Structures are given as C-alpha cells and as structure tokens.
C-alpha cells in the first residue's frame, strides 16, 4: 500500500462542474482532529478509455493563482512497480474544475529510477522543488528531487538522487523549521526491515541531507507496506500534528500530536481520518482541508479538516 499516482500524456481533458461533487465511500473518523464529508474533486478517468487511479499526491497553488496536483497514477488495477509517470492536473480553484494535463515527469532508468512515487512540491527562493521516491536496487530505495521555474517543466538536479535508504524508504514530506529544512519519510528501523518508522533528515539547501533520525516509531514491524506511510506534519495552534497511515486499513489515517515536531509517540493519537495518502491543504481563505486518494478509489477527494 505504497504511495502512487499517475496520469496520461493525452490531450488535456477538463473535468467540468457536473463531475462534482461525489462522496467518497469511506468509514467515519473522529477525535480532536477529524474530517467532514469527502467530495470528489478530480477523476483521472474522465475522457479516458480505461479506469485510472491517483495515489499519493501533492497539491500546491502557483504564483498566478492556478492550483496544481501531482501524483502517482496508473490504469486500474493497482500496479505499483509500473507506476513510472507523475500525474499533473490544474484548476482555477482548489475545488475545481480540474483539467488533466500531460505527465509532469517520466521515470529515467538511466539514473537508476525504477518507478516514480509520492511527489511533494514546495517553493523556495523562486524555484519549485519536487521531492519523490524513485526506487532502486532490491532492499533499498532512493529519494530524489527535480526543480521547476513554473510548475510545468521539471528537471532533475543531477541524477536527482538525494540519498538511499532501506526497504521502505519513500513518501517524502518537507518543512521549514528554525532556519533549516526537515525531510520526513517512511522507513524501517533497520535497512532490511524492522519497526515501521517516520524518519527524517536535515538540510540547509534542500539538496544535501544529513544523517537519518527517527521522529516516530510504530510497534508494528515488517519490510514494506506498513502503517507509517504518507507522513505529513502540520503546525497548528502552537502544537505539531503528524498524519500517517494506512491505519488500521487501507482507507485510514491516524493523527498524533506533540510539542516537538521531531518526536511523536504512539500514545499521543488525537484523531482518525477515513483517508488514504492524506495531504493537508489550506485554501486562499485560510480554511483547512484534507485529501483522500488511492488504488480503486476513483480519483482525488477533499474534506474540511476540523481541529478541536
């Protein structure tokens, strides 16, 4: 149940307002942090001869006000090892209508990439950075980066590879903290397996990253597909919140709270959201939203995110 999302290079197809909204078939959540009703905002299958999925994804607003969605994608059914392109869609507003665009990036086996998973995009010093999982040799995986001046054309920084870690390394998320950058990702306590963890590394330039540290350790152990995928860390009302999953099933994300963004504990769960590969998004009016997507889910969904 790794991060995935992909899109076709066919001509752009506009998803009209008639396609909105559709409710997600998801179990209820609850707790101090919880979500409202999920509504479908993007269906990658519209105008296509087959059904497509979007899995792990990222949503950002460009300098001109256009919203961009990037993610893992592939025709149904799930085929993670062949997810080799990043989906791209755009919209004038967060809730759409979304327009399907050609792939944002294609995998490059010449630089050691075996797939493209779980993009995360941010802007720094006038340049957009896309962090992503690019695969690698058996029992190891690369995290990579590409940059863009405009969110449309992406170029790898060298080979793209930032660092290599063990079995479960994927799903990067990056935030700014006290003058440095923190890159969170899912991993294991040992390269060949062990407890599922949310790891992190630090950088001053978004390209050179330090040693591996641990922000969260789960009691569950294994190799891949554990409950610490899609980590997303949010600062709200003076505290830090870690969103991660799938927990306990494919469509499920737990939320943990801490005063320290580099340390979360399993005992500090404060919420559950019926979402897979959840991303937290703030709209232009300051409202909070959370996403849902995945294999067999029919597209990308959005729900209001509530804090208590």
TrEMBL record:
Keywords: Glycosidase, Hydrolase, Signal. Pfam families: Glyco_hydro_32N. Residues 1-26 form the signal peptide. InterPro entries: GH43_arabinanases, Glyco_hydro_32_N, Glyco_hydro_beta-prop_sf. It comes from the Bacteria. Residues 48-218 form the Glycosyl hydrolase family 32 N-terminal domain. One of its GO terms (molecular function) is hydrolase activity, acting on glycosyl bonds. Belongs to the glycosyl hydrolase 32 family. This is Glycosyl hydrolase family 32 N-terminal domain-containing protein. It comes from Actinocatenispora rupis. The lineage of its organism: Bacteria, Bacillati, Actinomycetota, Actinomycetes, Micromonosporales.
């Amino acid at each position: 149940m790794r991060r995935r999302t992909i899109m076709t290079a066919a001509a752009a197809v506009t998803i009209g307002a008639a396609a909105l909204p559709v409710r997600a078939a998801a179990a209820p959540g609850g707790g101090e942090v919880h979500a409202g009703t999920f509504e479908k905002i993007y269906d990658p299958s519209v105008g296509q001869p087959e059904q497509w999925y979007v899995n792990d994804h990222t949503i950002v607003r460009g300098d001109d006000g256009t919203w961009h969605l990037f993610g893992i994608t592939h025709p149904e059914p799930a085929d993670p090892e062949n997810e080799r392109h990043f989906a791209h869609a755009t919209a004038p507003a967060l809730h759409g209508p979304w327009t399907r665009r050609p792939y944002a990036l294609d995998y490059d086996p010449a630089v050691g990439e075996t797939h493209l998973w779980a993009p995360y995009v941010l802007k720094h010093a006038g340049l957009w950075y896309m962090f992503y999982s690019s695969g690698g040799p058996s029992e190891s995986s690369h995290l990579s980066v590409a940059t863009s001046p405009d969110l449309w054309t992406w170029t790898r920084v060298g080979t793209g590879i930032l660092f290599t870690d063990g079995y479960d390394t994927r799903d990067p998320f990056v935030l700014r903290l006290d003058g440095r950058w923190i890159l969170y990702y899912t991993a294991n306590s040992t390269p060949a397996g062990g407890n599922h963890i949310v790891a992190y590394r630090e950088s001053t330039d978004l390209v050179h990253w330090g040693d591996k540290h641990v922000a969260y350790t789960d009691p569950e152990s294994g190799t891949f597909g554990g409950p610490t995928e899609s980590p997303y860390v949010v600062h709200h009302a003076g505290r830090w919140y870690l969103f991660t999953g799938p927990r306990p099933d494919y469509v499920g994300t737990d939320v943990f709270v801490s005063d320290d963004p580099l340390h979360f504990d399993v005992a500090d769960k404060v919420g559950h959201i019926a979402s897979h590969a959840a991303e937290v998004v703030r709209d232009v009016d300051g409202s909070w939203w959370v996403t849902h997507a995945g294999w067999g889910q029919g597209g990308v969904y959005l729900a209001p995110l509530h804090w208590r």
